[in-house]
Amino acid sequence: MTPEPRPAGPMDDPAMKPAANPLILGIETSCDETAAAVLRGRTILSNVIASQADIHKEYGGVVPELASRHHLERIDAVLDQALSRAGVSLRDLDAVAVTSGPGLVGSLLVGLQAAKAIAYVRQIPILAVNHLEGHLRSVWLEHPGAPFPAISLIASGGHTSLYFSRDEDHVVRLARTRDDASGEAFDKVAKLVGLGYPGGPVVDRLAKTGNPKAVPLSPPKMSDGSLDLSFSGFKTAVLRHAKARGLDRRFPAGEPDQETRDLLASFQTAVVEFMVKRVMALVRREGARSICLSGGVACNSLLRARLAEEAGKATIEFFAVSPALAADNAAMIAEVGRRRLMKGEIADLSLNADPGLDF
Ligand code: KG4
Ligand code: ZN
């Protein structure tokens, strides 16, 4: 893409300080959700999410080409809806925030082009947002009073990492997965026993009627003593057990049998306990006063319950994002954009997608 020079806009005038409560449009298209949201300051005026889960379901995972094509088809309607639900028009916006990475390049580009067009036409600042920072801050957007220091767990379909924050401005990554993401493990295990995509919600539901002690699954051990995470071993152990017991059916008729549910319950418990153990080790090491959980896997009922229980025992607080902000959404993108705007960290129209962007 040839970089276009950013035309002179309101932010080029040094007298133009951002409003205390700017009206920001957020755009998120990094994976399989087409999302747009409007925030006034930290208040969410609208949060529209068009999921493509139904489209990718039959393939058992996200197909990048289909994802970008569907983003293209839906982005205009999603933007219109976000603006109309917020009761504002493009003319009212102070800035537009967009996910620039990490994610699927073809998907990211759709959101970026929409954001650039709006920034150019309306002559407003464009703000580049790291998707993972969006997940991290989604907790504080909903719970602005969460005490610091905090340990945050981002658990999603693409990433699983742990962070330490002295306060909202200082975030340091302490650990991350060395292979699969936690959500990816849920999705792969579900696919293995013939359940649909995304696997997390269905495993969560079926595990409630399974015996979590039926299949012993041991957590990975890091030879260097690091607190990094790893999920591929759980998946391989489940695959081995499923094959040995003939549970790796492609098209099970109706609801899975008891033995499959026992396997799913055992898998979910092993993965959740592994994450809880890591979180609590870091809470103790860093003297944290709160635990913050975000990302799609934050919807997992066992993970929420266990972290709440452990936080209670440690007499610290636990905050998990609500489902509307757990999955990919643009409200969290607008919130990070608001912070960029306040700090004067404005991007320009040469902004490009960065699929491997680190956080
Ligand atoms: O954050 P997200 O929407 O997308 C990424 O940025 O990856 O997370 C989606 C992931 C999927 O892997 C999905 O299976 C998982 O979150 N997920 C769950 C649950 N609900 C969604 N995993 C476990 N339990 C759930 N209830
Ligand atoms: Zn995400």
Poorly predicted runs: none
- Helix tally equals 11
Shape: globular
Q: What is the percent of helical residues? A: 40-55%
- Classification by helices and strands: alpha/beta
Mean pLDDT across all residues, rounded? 93
What portion of the residues fall into strands of 2 or more residues? 15-25%
The H-and-E topology, N to C, reads as EEEHHEHEHEEEHHHHEHEHH
Small molecules (ligands, ions, cofactors) in the structure = 5'-O-[(R)-(carboxyoxy)(hydroxy)phosphoryl]adenosine, zinc ion
Strand order in the sheet with the most strands: 3-2-1-4-5
Distance between the termini: 24 Å
Rg, nearest Å: 21 Å
Please tally the β strands and state the result. 10
State the major sheet: 5 strands, mixed
What does this structure look like?
The chain starts with 22 loop residues before the first strand and ends in a 17-residue tail after the last helix. The protein is an alpha/beta fold. The chain contains eleven helices and ten strands. The chain is globular and about 60 Å long. A hairpin with a 2-residue loop joins strand 7 (160-167) and strand 8 (170-176). Helix 4 packs across helix 11 and helix 7 (232-245) runs antiparallel to helix 8. The model has no long low-confidence stretch (mean pLDDT 93). The strands form two sheets. It has a five-stranded mixed β-sheet with strand order 3-2-1-4-5, sandwiched between helices. The protein has a five-stranded mixed β-sheet with strand order 8-7-6-9-10, with helices on both faces. 5'-O-[(R)-(carboxyoxy)(hydroxy)phosphoryl]adenosine binds next to helix 5 and helix 6.
